[in-house]
Amino acid sequence: MPIAIAEFQFYLPFALPRESDWAGQRVEFKFVAEDAVARVNALERGEPLFIDKAGETLSAQFVDRALSPPSPPLRVAVRDFTVDRLRVEVRGTVSAAGDVQRGDVRNAFYVLAIRAANAFLSHARVAAASPDRMEIDVNFDPSSSNTVVLTPMTVIWTAEDGASLPVYGSVAGGPLNVTGSVWARRLSRGTASFAAIGNAVRRLGEFPDIVRTLLLDAEAYVIAFHVSEALLVLGAACEIASDRYIDGSGRARDHAVKAALGRTNITFAERHFNAVPSLIHGRSLGQDDARNFALIERMYRARNNVAHEGYPYEDTSGGKVAVTPRVATEFIEACRDAIAWLDELSPR
Questions:
Q1: How far apart are CA 136 and CA 87, in angstroms?
Q2: How many of the other CB atoms lie within 10 Å of CB of 326?
Q3: Is residue 54 located within the same domain as residue 176?
Q4: Domain count, the chain
Q5: What's residue 180's pLDDT?
Q6: Does residue 225 form part of some domain?
Q7: Fewer CB in a 10 Å sphere around the end CB: N or C, the chain?
Q8: pLDDT at 148
Q9: How confident is the model at residue 187, as a pLDDT?
């Protein structure tokens, strides 16, 4: 099968934490399930920040940096906020060279480039003991499953022999195989009435509802491609919601409830959404909503894989499968519905 190569240049608004041994070095990530390899290296000292014609063109583009209404967006040239560059080369097999003209195939290469870049940046952050987040800024749209790379970038597509791949068609001068993009992040989603805010402050004081906050945090993590963090947050949200349900029922000291929570031969979802509600209200999520119950079972197993092994995956008959942002979005909706189910059983 032919090999397609996509060379990404990510233009960063932060400096990489270099030491003297970075020169000429690169790291490689193997994506076995996708039959692809990604190689990552940083801008070399002495290299131009904006490399090749595509980079120079990108540097002159403007981004509307959204501010909160009613302030107008602030227009900033890419060159004015870029301070470093990261190169990622993704090599993957395709059924035919022309497949790279398909949006789903290109999106798969984009996702691997983002995963490799952010894995490298995460390791660099930890090795440098830096509290500042270093990452490729990404938006995942749960409604369409589209991935938008917000960090300015260019990508060049070639075949294994170095020939250009006509990803975007052809013109008189040859195949179009280069693109660049820069997007502005929306800083605000949705609206809230001031009355709703005021009522929440009067009812809750300084801190908003922790469970609702954690569910929104999980959603924000998924949008930014941080699936591991989203799973950890979802697990915490479900535990807190269950504890709140038990406290609200007045059965926190009940020996039967304590015994159910202490059972180690059943899963988290079984304990918190079946066994305990069955004792308190004679109801179980597994019977009332089998689909969401099954999703919470999967979510918590994946959450445990993050906690114990460091990355988000599910065990399937075909082996370990990474939890994608789309699947994580299903987990979020299931947790939100299950928590609403608990709240209905024991309204506060």
A1: 12
A2: 12
A3: yes
A4: 2
A5: 64
A6: yes
A7: C
A8: 81
A9: 45
Q: Which of 59, 147, 163 is nearest to 111 (CA)?
A: 147
Choose one of 120, 154, 181: the last residue of a domain. Answer: 181
86/7 same-domain check: yes
User: SS3 letters for the chain?
Assistant: CCEEEEEEEEEECCCCCCCHHHCCCCEEEEECCCCEEEEEEECCCCCCCCCHHHHHHHHCCEEEECCCCCCCCEEEEHHHCCCEEEEEEEEEECCCHHHHHCHHHHHHHHHHHHHHHHHHHHHHHHHCCCCCCCCCCEEEECCCCEEEECCCEEEEEEECCCCECCCCCEECCEECCEEEECCCCCCCCCCCCHHHHHHHHHHHCCCCCHHHHHHHHHHHHHHCCCHHHHHHHHHHHHHHHHHHHHHHHCCCCCHHHHHHHCCCCCCHHHHHHHHHHHHHHCCCHHHHCHHHHHHHHHHHHHHHHHHHHCCCEEEECCEEEECCHHHHHHHHHHHHHHHHHHHHHCCC
Query: What is the C-alpha to C-alpha distance for residues 67 and 226, in angstroms, rounded to an integer?
Result: 24
| CATH code of the domain in which 304 resides | 1.20.120
- What per-residue confidence (pLDDT) applies to 71? 58
Q: Is 43 within the bounds of a domain?
A: yes
What pLDDT, on the 0 to 100 scale, is given for residue 185? 53
Total-model pTM: 0.74
Chain centre distance of CA 35 = 21
- At 201 the pLDDT is 86
Which of residues 159, 181, 203 is at a domain's end? 181
| 93 and 131 both lie in a single domain | yes
Same domain? For 21 and 116 the reply is yes
Q: Are residues 225 and 97 in the same domain?
A: no
**Is the same domain home to 20 and 163?**
yes
Q: Which residues of the chain have pLDDT under 70?
A: 65-73, 168-190, 347-348
Domain span including residue 45: 3-181
With respect to residue 126, please indicate whether it lies within any of the assigned structural domains: yes
